[in-house]
Amino acid sequence: MILCAVQAEARGDAMLGTAPPQTRVLLVHQPGPWGPRGLIESRCDPQIARRIDIAAAAAGMRLQAIRRPGKHEVGRPAGGFDIGVADSRAGAATVTWWKVDDLAEIVDELEAGGFSRAPLSVETAPVYLVCAHARHDACCALRGRPVAQALHVVRPGRVWETTHLGGDRFAANVLVLPTGELYGRVQPEGAAAFADAVDAGDVVTEFARGRIGLSPIAQTALFYAHQELGIARRDALSVISVERIDADNARVEVQTPSGAVIVTVASEMQEPAQLTCRGPEGVRARAYRGVALSR
């Protein structure tokens, strides 16, 4: 069942440019097992879950069900359900948290455009979401749950297992909020060093898939520049503009501490493959790579 991730590594599948497009993420605490469709196929009332899903999409948010690492809680979680909204936009990177006794409490507010109740807290410290969505793809649980547990040991209270993050073939996948970096092929034995780097405000280019809210081309250029310039600070670089050269190539202007640079990004369709354990064979994905950097 873990064959698709092993095959992806053997093929050298490119990870850059594969983070989701949404800048905001709705986090909904739902312990217990998740079906292939996540919150909709969980212990949450299906009608409530569908309304939450629709309201999140209407607000431009990505919905992620979350639960604590380890043994699943039975029944209502102690203290209530955690609800979070992560905003990864520059200058507004925060995770705002609420607690509710019943997920039905948030539906009307979400459908009205947002929460009217006062938040429990507004945080900027990194929160680690590790995909462990076994019913969507077995690789995510087999590789994700050990990483979630290892991160939980070194960052207790700041780690959640979560539903599908995309790119199952890159498991274990870790989304860092509120800044929005998405990482793949993270290993449990490197969890402490990984968390230390993230907490210090650095990006970890070795495992980078991209940053949510940016186009695939912009994501690729940004992390290629981090790697080529040897600049680890996540806030040291930013994308200024993207210019298409043709269907497969683009120029991206990236701001650095010493001025702007131009990154050339190329893309191509990969050979047909099985991209997920549950998915069909013969699917082709577009891969992005940085090919040049100039002043």
Overview of this protein structure:
The structure is a single chain. The radius of gyration is 19 Å and the shape is globular. It has 295 residues and is an alpha+beta fold. It has 6 helices and 14 strands. Helix content is 23%, strand content 29%. A 10-stranded mixed sheet has the order 5-4-3-1-2-7-6-8-9-10. A 4-stranded antiparallel sheet has the order 11-12-13-14.
Defining key terms:
295 residues, alpha+beta, ten-stranded mixed β-sheet, four-stranded antiparallel β-sheet
Which helices and strands appear, and what pairs or packs with what?
Layout (H helix, E strand, L loop, with lengths): L2 H9 L12 E6 L16 H13 L2 E7 L13 E7 L6 E7 L6 H5 L9 E3 L3 E5 L6 H17 L4 E4 L11 E4 L3 E3 L7 H9 L8 E4 L4 H14 L8 E9 L2 E8 L2 E11 L16 E9 L1
Give the structural class. Answer: alpha+beta
Mean pLDDT: 92
Query: First CA to last CA: what distance?
Result: 46 Å
Share of helix, binned: 10-25%
- In total, how many beta strands? 14
Strand content: 25-35%
Give the neighbour order of strands across the main sheet.
5-4-3-1-2-7-6-8-9-10
Instruction: Give, in order, the helices and strands.
Output: HEHEEEHEEHEEEHEHEEEE
Number of helices: 6
Report the principal-axis shape: globular
Q: Main beta sheet: strand number and arrangement?
A: 10 strands, mixed
C-alpha-based Rg, rounded: 19 Å
Contiguous uncertain segments of 5+ residues = none
